[in-house]
Specification:
The structure holds two protein chains of two kinds.
Chain A: E1 5-9, E2 15-17, E3 31-35, H1 37-41, H2 46-50, E4 80-82, H3 84-90, E5 95-99, H4 110-123, E6 128-132, H5 136-148, E7 151-157, H6 162-169, E8 174-178, H7 182-195, E9 199-200, H8 206-211, H9 214-223, E10 231-235, H10 240-254, E11 264-270, H11 275-282, H12 307-317, E12 320-324, H13 326-340, H14 346-360, E13 370-374, H15 399-424
Parallel strand pairs in A: 5-13, 6-7, 6-9, 7-8, 10-11, 10-13, 11-12
Antiparallel strand pairs in A: 1-2, 1-3, 4-5
Helix pairs in contact in A: 3-13, 4-5, 5-6, 9-10, 10-12, 11-12, 13-14
Chain B: E1 3-6, E2 20-23, H1 28-38, H2 40-46, E3 57-61, E4 64-65, E5 81-86
Parallel strand pairs in B: 1-5
Antiparallel strand pairs in B: 1-2, 3-4, 3-5
The chains are: A alpha/beta, B alpha+beta.
């Protein structure tokens, strides 16, 4: 290898060096980056990582970026938090959250993948970048491109949440609303990337982009004191993240940074867009595309590119996949916020609700060390909580009025619990 | 009756850089056979070892995934635009 990584076809093994390309021209399968792990062995050590920055760039020896690249955003290295109160609520005893609701700069795990994609966009000489997006990716590309001075074209489904649209436009990106769903945007992007000389992070830069997801896996292992968990619960849209966390764990084992152990991978989807979980539950190897219909728009990909690969990862690990309704998603968003102080978007609601179900169904043992991956921030999808909370009449700024308010509130609360007790009795 | 078929960049090595063809195929199996006879170099790449069209190749008719239209049973209509996309991108 001229560099320590290069493109290789996941199916037929043909090598392609490094270029903006995502499809094998022999068997038309996706390309993936193949790393020279022997070369990485001397550079990707616990000590070297500990001496690195408090961001995903501490793992750059296994990321596809040139040694000379100077990172422009401190993405990643988000908290891994014990979640005892949520655990008690759902019958778990050893539960952690990987909290990418606070990933910088745009509050979702997409900041990680975009950081790697844009580093390569610059090295390939693109002056214009773009993506098709369900929202989080749009935010991340817009912010990252602004910081690098790149022009942007971002295609989103026309029904995207207003906050995600605003959080893209504010960076000066050209946002193109498409009269269709994500899969329509995606297809159009594939055609645009063939026509214009632009770097589309999830089309021609996709192999580079996807490697950024590995940092979620590296961080989980490092933050657990360089060991692997028993289970990981991961939301699935295109299906890439779950496969990359597994790739990260495997690399860590090969390089001797963690002890080998079986890790089960669990995938989470919304029932209204569940092509991967449907396949896993049916024992199928391939994906039947669906027309998405769910409030979890950031997971609403009806024809997931990495679906077949995700199915294999889940099945080979002894894991499982589940999907949950929109009502369960909203309840889970509230439950996570109320128990752990983490406000996540709908995708995190999906992951939390699925995690609860996996314990309820006995697929995860309460004592096993389980990490639930929260991938985005709740401030982006506040529309799903519209009407969830009452707005009481304003209290006059006098102590007597406040005391009366408090009394009224306590009485109401007592009545509610009294009604509950009567019901239980 | 004819349909317009748009071919992706990844095919061009095997199609002498032809990007677009008109076809009189009545359905998807006929279209694949026609593509193979017109571009013999494409044949071995289009199908896997099992003789089936490779799973990563997607066909769309007028913006709709052909699998939503009945897949191999869908009868092409005059003027349909068929888009071939290998290995769709992802989120």
């Amino acid at each position: 290898m001229a560099t320590f990584y290069e493109l290789r076809c996941r199916e037929c093994g043909k090598g392609y060096g490094n270029q903006p390309l995502s499809i094998c021209d022999d068997c038309f399968s996706p390309l993936e980056l193949d790393f020279d792990l022997d070369y990485a062995r001397g550079r990707f050590t616990r000590e070297a990582i500990a001496a690195g920055p408090a961001s995903m760039w501490r793992y750059r020896a296994l990321l596809p970026v040139a040694d000379s690249y100077v990172p422009t955003t401190p993405a990643g290295f988000t908290p891994l938090m014990a979640a005892p109160r949520l655990a008690a609520r759902i019958g778990a005893r050893n539960l952690y959250l990987k909290n990418d609701a606070v990933c910088l700069p745009t509050l979702s795990f997409k900041d990680r993948v975009v950081a790697v994609a844009l580093a390569n966009a610059v090295s390939f000489g693109f002056d214009t970048v773009g993506c098709s997006s369900t929202g989080n990716l749009a935010n991340a590309v817009a912010a990252g491109a602004a910081r690098l001075g790149l022009k942007t074209y971002i295609l989103v489904p026309s029904d995207l949440e207003p906050a995600k649209i605003l959080n893209t436009q504010v960076y000066g990106a050209t946002l193109v609303r498409i009269d269709g769903n994500y899969d329509h945007c995606n297809r159009l992007c594939s055609q645009i990337a063939e026509r214009y000389n632009w770097g589309f992070v999830n089309v021609n830069l996709r192999p580079y982009y996807a490697e950024g997801s590995k940092t979620v896996g590296y961080e989980i292992a490092e933050q657990l004191g360089w060991r692997l968990p028993d289970n990981v619960v991961v939301p699935m849209a295109g299906g890439s993240l779950i496969t990359k966390i597994r790739k990260a764990f495997k690399e860590l084992v090969i390089l001797g940074l963690v002890e080998d152990k079986p890790v089960k991978f669990f995938g989470a989807q919304a029932t209204g867009c569940s092509p991967i979980s449907t396949a896993v539950k049916a024992g199928a190897d391939s994906i039947e595309p669906q027309r998405p219909n769910t409030i979890a728009r950031s997971l609403a990909i009806g024809n997931p590119a990495d679906g077949p690969h995700a199915i294999r990862v889940i099945r080979d690990s002894g894991g499982w996949a589940e999907d949950v309704s929109d009502i369960e998603i909203v309840s889970a968003i509230q439950e996570l916020a109320e128990t752990e102080g983490v406000f996540t978007e709908t995708a995190g609601g999906v992951t939390t609700a699925v995690t609860a179900r996996l314990y309820a169904h006995g697929r995860i043992h309460p004592d096993e060390l389980t990490v639930s991956c929260i991938t985005g921030n709740g401030l982006k999808t506040t529309d799903v909580l519209q009407g969830a909370y009452e707005r009481h009449a304003a209290v006059r700024p006098r102590m007597t009025d406040f005391a009366a308010y408090l009394e009224e509130r306590q009485a109401a609360s007592l009545a509610a619990s009294g009604a509950g007790a009567a019901y239980v009795g | 009756m004819s349909v317009k078929v748009l071919l992706p960049n990844a095919f061009q090595k095997h199609t002498n850089n032809v990007r677009e063809i008109e076809s009189t195929a009545l359905n998807l199996p006929e279209l694949v056979t026609e593509m193979e006879s017109r571009f013999p170099a494409l044949r071995q790449h289009l199908r896997g070892e099992d003789g089936q069209v490779r799973k990563f190749i997607n066909f769309y008719v007028n913006e709709e995934d052909i699998r939503f239209l009945g897949n191999e049973k869908y009868a092409f209509q005059d003027g349909d635009e068929v888009l071939v996309i290998p290995s769709i991108a992802g989120g």
